[in-house]
Amino acid sequence: MGMLCFFQKHKTVKGPKMADICGKQKMRIALVGCSKSKKAGCHPAKDLYTSPRFVSAQKHARRHFDKMFILSAKHGLLYPTRRIKNYDVTLHAMSANERKRWSARVARQITKVVPLGAEIHFFCGKKYHEFLSLLLLEHKCFFPLKGLKLGQQLRWYKNNP
Question: Please, what is the end-to-end C-alpha distance for the chain in angstroms?
Fold first, then answer.
């Protein structure tokens, strides 16, 4: 253990967090897009969406990432445990300007809860990340499903559980 890390651990030096100096890996965040198919009523967000793509994405994210959030067309960035009511709002029905405003709102939400420099992995359709990823300059963004159609995405999740 280096001397700087020792002092950081014992709180005798102020400055960057010990994990930043000692080389801890960057936090890996998964952003999972919501789905049109939902349960009726009010549920935790992780339980509200019922599409096979959402269920597969959530399972993959929980297994491989430090933290997962849900991208909701209505609510923006959601913690999986936040209780919300069924709704009928979709980014596909929004104009490009409306999606840009949605993206700006979500980017502000992300900056409040995701550490600078975190890796952000998008498990959602293009309409969710087309403008949003451009606003996340302090993060490295990844798009593992880019260019894959629905059936190909489901196969990707099956091959990458």
Answer: 36
Beta bridge mates, 71: 33, 77
Domain count, the chain: 1
Q: Which domain holds residue 62?
A: 27-159
Residue 147 DSSP code: T
- Residue 6 has a pLDDT of 34
Give 67-100 as a DSSP string. Answer: EEEEEETTTEEE-TT-EEE-----GGGS-HHHHH
Edge-to-edge order in the sheet of strand 140-142: 76-78, 67-72, 28-33, 119-123, 140-142
pLDDT tens digits, one per residue of 114-129: 999 999 999 999 999 9
